[in-house]
Write a structure and sequence with these properties.
Blueprint: H1 7-14, H2 16-27, E1 30-31, H3 32-39, H4 43-55, E2 59-64, E3 67-72, H5 74-94
Antiparallel strand pairs: 1-3, 2-3
């Protein structure tokens, strides 16, 4: 049973704007223009966050003419969810594993 969570991925998703981007991309594939409209973030700021998400493997790009569309990689989110599920399963049995004090 795995009891650790990918801390690098958690750091990437801990930023509120990146989490908002991931939430939006979970609903539909969007281009940068759509994401600027939805988040209210400046385009340069948004592009930097998208780069971090892309480098972490959370999103992938799809060129479409002069636009770049972003889509969420559900396998990465599912892996993280599985790690949390394993951690929760471990915590359920933790009450039975009490370490004695010296």
């Amino acid at each position: 049973m795995m009891t650790s969570v990918d801390t690098d991925l958690m750091r990437v998703l801990a930023d509120p704007l990146r989490l908002q981007i991931v939430t939006l991309l979970a609903r539909e594939t969007l281009c940068t223009t759509h994401l600027v409209e939805e988040t209210g973030a400046k385009q340069t700021n948004l592009s930097n966050h998208l780069r971090v998400l892309r480098e972490a493997g959370v999103v992938e790009t799809e060129p479409c003419g002069r636009f770049t569309y972003y889509k969420l990689r559900p396998d990465v989110i599912a892996l993280l969810a599985g790690q949390f599920a394993d951690l929760a399963a471990s915590a359920r049995t933790a009450a039975e594993n009490k370490r004695a004090c010296p």
